[in-house]
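Encode chain A's predicted structure.
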Amino acid sequence: MTLRKQGGIWAAKRSGSFPFRINRWLPYGNLNIERRMVMKQLFISQPFRGRTEEEVFEERARILSRVEAIYKEEFSVIDQYHQIAPEGAGRFYYLSQDILMMDKADLIAFSPDWQSAKGCRVEHELATAYGLNIIEVEL
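Encoded structure for chain A:
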C-alpha cells in the first residue's frame, strides 16, 4: 500500500491485497489512515438462535478479547449481526450475507459452540475448503 497526501487529503494505492482491495488512488479524507491500514478484520461465527442480543454481543466481546490476546494485535470485528432481512428474503439470506463478509476477513473465529448451528458448520466448511485463516476459540 502506497500513501501520499494530495491537497491535504490522504490517498492510498494498492500494492498488495491486504487490507484494502483497491487498484487506483482512493481519497480517504483526514482519517487516521495508518491505524486503519494495519488493523486486521475479524469475522466471528457464532450461533444466534435462542439467544438474546445482549448474550450475542457479550460473547462477541469475549471472543474478540481472546483472539487479540492470542495474536497480540488489535482486530476490527466485521459487523455481521443482521437485525431485519428484506421483505421476501429466502431462508439462506443471512448465510449468504455472512459468506460475502467472510471473504473480507483476515481471520475467522468460531465460538465454542459453533458446531451446534447449521450456518456455522457451513461457514467452517467453506473457510476450511478455501484455506481461510480460522481459529476455534475456547472461552
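Helices lie at 33-38, 53-71, 93-102, 118-129.
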